[in-house]
Amino acid sequence: MSSASEAAVPTVEELEAQERRLVFRRFTNDDAWALGSLLVELARERQAPVAVDIHRAGQQLFHAALPGSTPDNDAWIARKRRVVERYGSASYLVGSRFRAKGTTFEESSRLDADTYAAHGGSFPITVADVGVVGAVTVSGLPQVEDHRLVVEALERFLGE
């Protein structure tokens, strides 16, 4: 049974704390494969119909489309990843910051909604003393669940 805190939508402060905490010492192609494989394993356990993507410095290092995912998931991945690349923050956090100001990303960012989506599921790959070098993205579940799946995988991968 889920507790109320697990069902609660994370606050901007909680999302910012996740980003401060989930930082890599380095991020290699092998790390991308291992993290992506972990995400696929977690998604398969839940029979989640998701696509998983990892990009670093403009290069796709990992991609998987699980049963039930569609080409639309790839389009969502690209739009969410662009938000991370532009803002240096998780796509869900960016959208949450707009909502906290009483508006939406779509209304106030002045960015093309066909190119950018501040919906949950893309998280920055941040390397200590370097900064954001890429993004890990999931699409196929409701946005808070996409976000939580990525965070869970990062926590496990980073040994938290």
From TrEMBL:
<protein>
    <recommendedName>
        <fullName>UPF0303 protein RM812_24585</fullName>
    </recommendedName>
</protein>
<dbReference type="InterPro" id="IPR038084">
    <property type="entry name" value="PduO/GlcC-like_sf"/>
</dbReference>
<dbReference type="InterPro" id="IPR010371">
    <property type="entry name" value="YBR137W-like"/>
</dbReference>
<comment type="similarity">
    <text>Belongs to the UPF0303 family.</text>
</comment>
<dbReference type="InterPro" id="IPR005624">
    <property type="entry name" value="PduO/GlcC-like"/>
</dbReference>
<dbReference type="Pfam" id="PF03928">
    <property type="entry name" value="HbpS-like"/>
</dbReference>
